[in-house]
Amino acid sequence: MPSTPGTGFINKIKAHLELLDPVTWISVFPGLACGAMASGAMQATPHDYLVLFAVFLMYGPLGTGFSQSVNDYFDLELDRVNEPTRPIPSGRLTKQEALLNCIIVVLLAMGLGIWLGIDTGGMRGMVITTMIFSALFVAYIYSAPPFKLKKNIFASAPGVGFSYGFVTFLSGNALFSDIRPEVVWLAALNFFMAIALIIMNDFKSVEGDREGGMKSLTVMIGAKNTFIVAFAIIDMVFAVLVWLAWSWGFMVPMALVVLGLVLNIVIQIQLLADPKGGVSFLKGTVEDGFGNAIGKSDVQEHNTFLRFQVANNVLFLVNNLVLAAMIGIRYMPS
């Protein structure tokens, strides 16, 4: 049957969009939103909404999109094993088309970073521009030789934590105020939370990583021990968040964080008892359409991690939002 006119072009656009992995874009918004809320200075004006949207566009579709596209470009051989349906190994995009995709989005992200820096001005503007340029650089060396940070978990996890969990908080805050010291704490904790989650996210590619010589934690110590290490980091993050809420005088948020820690530990115990089938009450989140969006795979440990991720992310996000709101209220002009 002959193809419908325009179908080839539309499919090519869809492949370019898939290369940017849209489901990952939203991961930067909580940090940006919390940073902006904690400033206590954002106003309900068209300008403030515009710059908040612009910084999300910079870190989400462009910055995160660049990290995904450049990773696919340099990981073609690995993806033939791990993710053969991705745009390049499936043949829907050539390597040259993928390279063009990378160049366009990184230039747009850099351009937005410069514009936001100029619009904000002063030291705050320098923070925003420096943060996005640093995140883009880390995203490049994460996948590209000779550094290729992703080859070793001890370099790759901090790289992801910095680009996803640290710079977004500072940039969202710098849009509207000087960097609040409380925001630096929240950014640091999100850095460690991202490390814990990326450690477990490697479950899905363990076979390809082993064949390609990638030193993921799962390859080195096995799935169950990887769960233990990641859970220890996550529980440490929640524990420090409890202490911070108490030291800042936020008693109700502190109780919410304690509740989140307890619920997480209960879930973690189930996972450690059954690393492949634990947290079965969240099974639907992986097996329905949402599960397909967030990366369902044939590796059972990875699907179990996705169930845990849903619960953990909700608990952690709620606590971050509540604390950011309380910090922002404290800094609001009286």
From TrEMBL:
Pfam (any one): UbiA
Entry's Gene Ontology cellular component terms: membrane
GO molecular function: chlorophyll synthetase activity
EC numbers: 2.5.1.62
GO terms under biological process: chlorophyll biosynthetic process
InterPro entries (alphabetical): Chl_synth (IPR006372), Prenyltransferase_related (IPR050475), UbiA_prenyltransferase (IPR000537), UbiA_sf (IPR044878)
Record-annotated membrane-spanning stretches: 98-118, 124-142, 154-177, 183-200, 221-246, 252-273, 314-332
Predominant cellular place of this UniProt entry's protein: membrane
Annotated localization: Membrane
Superkingdom of the organism of origin: Bacteria
Membrane topology: Multi-pass membrane protein
Keywords: Cell membrane, Chlorophyll biosynthesis, Membrane, Transferase, Transmembrane, Transmembrane helix
NCBIfam families named among the record's database cross-references: chlor_syn_BchG (TIGR01476), PRK12392.1 (NF009058)
Protein name: Chlorophyll synthase
Organism: Chlorobium luteolum (strain DSM 273 / BCRC 81028 / 2530)
